[in-house]
């Protein structure tokens, strides 16, 4: 009704009779009937109206018989202001009672509707993606924290101990921290502290995994194995295995720390272990001629380390059984006391009888073809059976034993170092070449006849042959070889005691 009255009002203005008199005023006008933007009347006015959400303001003249409109009260949708002098309505204004432009909002357009729908949907998608990333990062963080198991020390205590290690030797620190409850290595925060205090001195070896450096930590030599980025799984697996509870053994390479560190604007994967200046057994045999006693010492220490890996230790602080899967002379280090320790556990598998769980890991790398057992080369190995992996270690141990005995002097005779199967395959044999020699032709390395004339080397020659049976189940076990060599050692010591 109000809008109709407003329209009638403007019709009245436009249709009013125009009897111009001398007392008429000249007013500003913007209506259609105005001449030259002015009009004449008794009163000048400015009106303002709100219709369909839009505000319209007009200026014009009123005649005497409709001057009562000037007394119209200001309302929500209409208001008027009048004045009585020439052109007085040029600069006056009028306002409505409500805030203009908010009373009757426009209906949302299709574009606005799409925005109203799409913006929340996109926001939810972004939130879902961010949530997924956060959850994934947390899972990765928990996995890595699981690798570096802490003992019962609180973080504050660990950091205090880490800050004091400068006053102690590395051996003291390992002896203090590496209890049965803390795995093979140091607590995680101490590992990070040690890793960041190491100075790299010289590169002492290279391989497909990366490089090995001699480093110095508080004046003591350590070995730093730096993995290439493409071999991250080997670093991860070695870290996991080395942190296994009760793994520490005199014939397993001593683990100190593992860390991701940033050097030269790139991330490096470090595995820090004890340093042995004699290097690998492979390097040692190149330059060293052995006597029978040293040969037996090397062979016995290797099998002791392998037995410790293969045996499962039961109990709340037990140890799973571990198979190496890449045993070879390059992965065995020679200590200063001429005993050996086994290294490179990047391909190891673990097994626990209680849960019957076989942890193979997810490392795509395979073992060394020259040392592969027949069942691996012809792909007949039972991958779901842990015993199968132990039996491949025994095959490889027999080959390492052959390498050692070749460099042992008997009656003044010794051979140059050669790798297994050097006379039948090239220096870098292919899988098919090794398969033909080992599986099809069923060849084994030739055992020198001179070994059978020595009381120590003759039993070793028998052992290596029993490691090379085509049937895996017919091979000796690591424990049986250890007992045989221990008995051989005892027989050598008795005459000395009698003397």
From TrEMBL:
GO terms for molecular function: ATP binding; metal ion binding; transmembrane receptor protein serine/threonine kinase activity. It holds the Pfam family PK_Tyr_Ser-Thr. Its cofactor is Mg(2+); Mn(2+). SUPFAM superfamilies: Protein kinase-like (PK-like), Snake toxin-like. It is found in: Membrane. The chain crosses the membrane at residues 113-136. Residues 198-492 form the Protein kinase domain. Keywords: ATP-binding, Glycoprotein, Kinase, Magnesium, Manganese, Membrane, Metal-binding, Nucleotide-binding, Receptor, Serine/threonine-protein kinase, Signal, Transferase, Transmembrane, Transmembrane helix. PANTHER family: SERINE_THREONINE-PROTEIN KINASE RECEPTOR R3 (PTHR23255:SF66), TRANSFORMING GROWTH FACTOR-BETA RECEPTOR TYPE I AND II (PTHR23255). This is Serine/threonine-protein kinase receptor.
